[in-house]
Amino acid sequence: MVQFLVKRFIGLIFVVIGVTFITFIMGYFAPGDPIREMLGNHVIPQVYNQLKHQYGLDLPWYQQYWNFLTHLARFDFGLSYHQQNYPVWNILSDGVPVSAELGFWALILQILVGVPLGIISALKANTWVDTVNMGTMLILYALPAFVLAIFVQLFIVWIDQQTGATWPVANWGNPWQYSLSDIQLKLAPILVFAATGTALYARLARTSMLEVLRQDYVRTARAKGLRERVVIYRHAFRNAMIPLITVFGFSLGLLVTGAFFIEQIFNIPGIAEITITSVNNRDYPVIQATVVLLAVAVVIGNLISDILYSVADPRIKAA
Amino acid sequence: MDTKDQNKDPGVMFPDSAVSPLFIEDTIATNEPGEVMTAPGTATTITATQLEKAKKSPTPFQESLRRLRRDKRAMVSLGILVLFVLIPIFGPLIYQHIGGTYQSTLNGPIGPDVYHSPFHQELDRQDELFSGQYWLGTDSLGRDLLARLMQGMLISLVVAILVEIVDITLGITIGVLAGFYGGWIDQLLARFTDIMFAFPGLLFAILLTGIFGTEADTVFSNIPIIGPNGNARLILVSLALALTTWPLMARYVRGQTLQLKEQQFIEAARTSGTTDVRIILRHIIPNLFSIVIVAATLNMSNTIIGEAGLSLLGLGVQAPGSSIGVMISDATSNISTHPWEVLLPSLTLTLIVLAFSFLGDGLRDAFDPRSKD
């Protein structure tokens, strides 16, 4: 177990270094001179040099990279190019609770909805319930988040027009507060955000459950006269859930990409939305910070699911 | 590591060597008895033509094609995809010759080649619904929606093809070398793949296009055909998407190569003194066909989503260009007043994406019959 952990941890460090290096080197080779752009037309050499020093841009690349890394370790993402001397973290920090809230509910929802749907499908395999359910899940999985978002918005518009209601199409409420108007605003984006992951969990839960139901120990349990309910929940369900642990990291990745579109289309002020705005301002440190944050979050999510998997299924340690 | 990889893409379950049971040819050939073999008792009634038929038992490849043809969902998808290729290529040529001269209050008399161009704005004809002049209506700048849609489909098609060319070339080259020789190239592939997989989905593409986008606009805009109309950035978009997809392809290829390497016909080729280059070119690469075609088909929908998504975020095609993503982003602001304008590109994208997914699934089932539950 310890050996496995050490091995995974070394892998993690390697990947984090790779990710940060790629992100850094892109910012390093980014076109244009940020300091010159900051100063506009009136460049005083002294001020220029001073700013360049302040941003650490006068150092050779390996020292810049080292600073980038050490600052990252302290959650310091450097200074914004767009707003002079303004830390990147201050720009992003407004969006973090919003994105975290969106992601939190989506994660919960996709497991709580997806897994039962998959189990139902497996228990009713090859009936119309299964066909309809899995057909829907296949479509939800294949469609990109932004198209789903558009369809949901169109649906809201249609409902509003039919009933005269004023259900909001976009925008976000107060973070982590759930008054009626907050819920009205948050429901649609969270549902759409969770959809792809729900489909993923449902499809895998079905496959996994079908696999387990074929096992000898399930047949044994049935043969010794246990009630079907006990067989399914005590014997089959628990074992069927083990492979699902491994998708946790992957589903986190789906959420990360989805966030950019959900936040853009529903006009939600999360970190993805802030990042896209920063692209237009050529505020590269903000893009770098977001990418590193999200990529590392996914890598850690993968690590956690690997560790949980090895705990749940001891056979994996040998591999 | 394998446990993680299995779940990277549930569309293609179990990509790696140990669990990808493609090309165990005997199971494919004998999968449907009665169609290939003749029943033993009827030997006396066999005619000459029947004998000939029995001799020419279909190859595994023909068997797979036959299975594919029987898959209705895949064939409908294939039909949609043929339209997806034909419409953007030939559609504009025809459409720009349909219709008479139009007396524009703003632009004077103009022919269909002008008002059916995806970039022409007719500012007093905004947000119209279907008419004889504008078959699918106009957008908020008075541009022809059908023309813009066809242009958008063309962009999707071109990007998908570009990305797939890079994806397949790099994937096969690196994958075969890594699988065949192992060693440092295998290690390098594994490490690089780990890093690229750490960027989930479009994150790497967002990073690359976000930082180098404006630069790409100025550098590539002088290139004829590709450059003008805000399409210059597509080169960067394609590059970004290709860079994120080829490691997965290389991994499939590597797994398949590892499996092929152990098979007897390779062993036989080697003992008879065939060179490595010849083994790779004549024996390994042809046998990668199905795994590559399945992975590429499934990947195409990801690429098309990727391009549309990046354009939607403003990182792909720039104004005045058209792309499915641009059309969606242009129309979202007035979704409640003119829902049709956003519904049209969304539905088109849905059709294309689902068609690719269904065809990919159909191909996988056809080429790898054991992958079914």
Q: Which short descriptors sum up this protein?
A:
heterodimer; A: 319 residues; mainly alpha; 0% strand; flat; B: 373 residues; two-stranded antiparallel ribbon; 15 helices; 2 strands; disordered N terminus
Describe the structure.
The complex is a heterodimer of chains A (319) and B (373). Chain A is built from 14 helices and no strands. Chain A has helices at residues 2-28, 34-39, 45-54, 61-73, 88-93, 95-123, 128-142, 145-163, 180-213, 216-223, 228-245, 247-265, 271-280, 284-312. The longest helix of chain A is centred in the middle third of the chain and has 34 residues, at 180-213. Chain A is flat. The N and C termini of chain A lie close together (11 Å). The model of chain B is unreliable at 1-43 (pLDDT under 50). In chain B, strand 1 (102-104) and strand 2 (108-110) form a beta hairpin. Chains A and B meet through helix 1, helix 7, helix 8, helix 9 and helix 12 of A and helix 1, helix 8, helix 9, helix 13 and helix 15 of B.
Largest sheet: number of strands, sense, barrel closure of chain B? 2 strands, antiparallel
Biggest chain contact: A-B, 67 and 50 residues
Helix/strand/pairing category of chain B: mainly alpha
In the predicted model, the low-confidence regions of chain B spanning at least 5 consecutive residues are 1-43
Q: Count the helices of chain A. How many?
A: 14
Which SSEs are present, and which pair or pack?
The complex is a heterodimer of chains A (319) and B (373).
Chain A: H1 2-28, H2 34-39, H3 45-54, H4 61-73, H5 88-93, H6 95-123, H7 128-142, H8 145-163, H9 180-213, H10 216-223, H11 228-245, H12 247-265, H13 271-280, H14 284-312
Helix pairs in contact in A: 1-4, 1-14, 6-7, 6-9, 6-12, 6-13, 7-9, 8-9, 8-12, 9-11, 9-12, 10-11, 12-13, 12-14, 13-14
Chain B: H1 2-5, H2 25-29, H3 48-55, H4 60-70, H5 72-95, E1 102-104, E2 108-110, H6 112-115, H7 145-181, H8 183-198, H9 203-220, H10 234-261, H11 264-271, H12 276-284, H13 289-312, H14 324-332, H15 339-367
Helix pairs in contact in B: 4-15, 5-7, 5-15, 7-8, 7-10, 7-13, 7-14, 8-10, 9-10, 10-13, 11-12, 13-14, 13-15, 14-15
